[in-house]
Request: fold
Amino acid sequence: MTKKLAVILALAFLVFLAGCQPKASPEERLKEYIGHWNKEEFSEMYSTYLNQGTKEAYASEDFVERQQKLYTDLAIENIEVTYTKPSKDENWDTEKPADFPVQVKMDTMAGPIEFEKNMTLLYETAEDKEDWFIEWDPSFIFEQLATGDEVRVSATRAKRGEILDRNEQPIAINGTGYNVGVVPENFKDASAKKELATVLGVSVASIDEKLNQSWVQENQFVPISKVAKDNTQLLEKVKAVPGATYQETTMREYPYGEALGHLSGYIGPMTAEKLEELKDQGYTSTDLIGRRGLEQTLEERLRGENGLKILIKKQGDTGEELTIAETPAKDGETVVLTIDAELQKSTYEAMEGEAGTSAAVNPKTGETLVLVSSPAYNPNEYMLGISEDRFKELSEDPLNPLFNRFGAAYAPGSTIKPITAAIGMEAGTLEPSVGLQIDGATWQKDGSWGDYRVTRLHPEAPNPVDLNTALVYSDNIYFARQALEMGNQAFVSGLQRFGFGEEIPFALELQSSQISNEGTLGSQGQLADTSFGQGQMLTNILHLASMYEPFLTDGTMYKPLLFMDEEKSQVWKEGLLSAENAKVLRTGMRNVVVDGYAQSANSKTVKIAGKTGTAELKGAIGEEGQENGFFVAYDSESPDFILAMMIESIEENGGSDYVAGFATKVFENYKAE
Reply:
């Protein structure tokens, strides 16, 4: 009995001691609660710290699940909750509420949110435990949030940046086009549906799919397909279909169409594969993205950043919406090119749809004024989603309008001869006034060359053949002999000084010009061939135009530029030839037009100087016997630009003079403006 009484007394004493332990202060409880809040431990906050009244008003899902979902959906992170400490001599009365100013900061997908509120703690008994408990409501999630309110996100789409030419003419802009569609109550004829499907290049099933969407009403316009504003022929066909019509809508517009097609490129719908690749960059399945050309290259600059708002829609009939966080949309950049769109259009049209490429540069600044690939596609057509039939038509076109020729490299033929001459003059092995005795149509150094002989087109060239005569008659033998005279090493290093074998410093990726596949010349025969632009030599058309700059700048070649905000006249290569030698070559190239075989360029209105070139394609490079014609030229009186043009397969059109005729139209049109 005594032992049992001792145990009871001991237990009673422990209870007494427990009752004498000081309770946690409201500040300590709040500090613990805020610790869980900063760690997003909502379950612990609800179960251990909320007072009874709060739990009766808000079930666990209203507190725990809702906050977890909001934090996920709104990408809330960096939550930082603090409180204002009370004075040190604060005495807490358990009969009265304890209030603390609480500061809440967080980052969201729409920007930061920050607010301050008073948080009240009440001294209560909960589950046989007396302590301080938190009084809570939804305004501790967001200050303006009340019971029954909805939280939603609103996106504001950024405007895509536009691409303009040097004169601020539109190349790729946010313009308008047309939605072709029908009003169901006026479109009941099955034959009309088939006719519209044929006109638009879509299936009847796809039209039915559009008409069967849940929102469609009998008297509402239903869009079926989009049509570019300049496609007037198709719009006329649409008007002829009973019940079909069209309405203007916002749309990306490419006013210069094919003339700038390969340069501008186009935008198109986001594919599932591309969206997966770019999933961390804020794209959505409904976005349009650059697919080709500058639209693709400049995607990051053009796309802009969509704006976001986090809104609270208040309960009640008014439906008031409060913005609690907002990141305004940031429109894409307007990019201004050095391109002269009208000169580009003139050049494209002058080529008359022939397969080829052209480039023009300002010899004083390096600015790229023209970059043409012909023929081309219309980016307006591609941007809207090209039909299978139309894609097949373009793909099977023997002129290959889908191939971007200004990005490739080609054997330059005789257009390289002025460069060969410049290298020889600077090396001291070529004296312009000293003539060579050249007889016959072919030549070889000696019998060690076997069957290989250098052939020239004009054996009637008068002897002795000096540099001027060699340029006028485009004499292959003269330049082959000059290359042999200067030697392999001097010629190769000279070409390298003109930029052969290195990456072209340009905003777009262009195939580099090469001396040969290996970058060296393995034989005297290859050295001879390369001196007049054959062998394995390849040049990019823009680089070829740039290589003629030193003849007008007395030895300097500038980096080719594409954007107006780039520093002008950035030196790429300098000291390539003396002013005296440059003048000799300018005179020779004027004589090529006046006295030589570029008579189509001997204009009455423009004193053109330049050099023609013909390159025969062999082996895997192309069909045996096919010849590409070149002309690189400038206005000798007013050299505002150097134009390099190449036309494929000119063997049945009179040779490279055929190309000179096209180029001359460009100069004459420019002069007439």
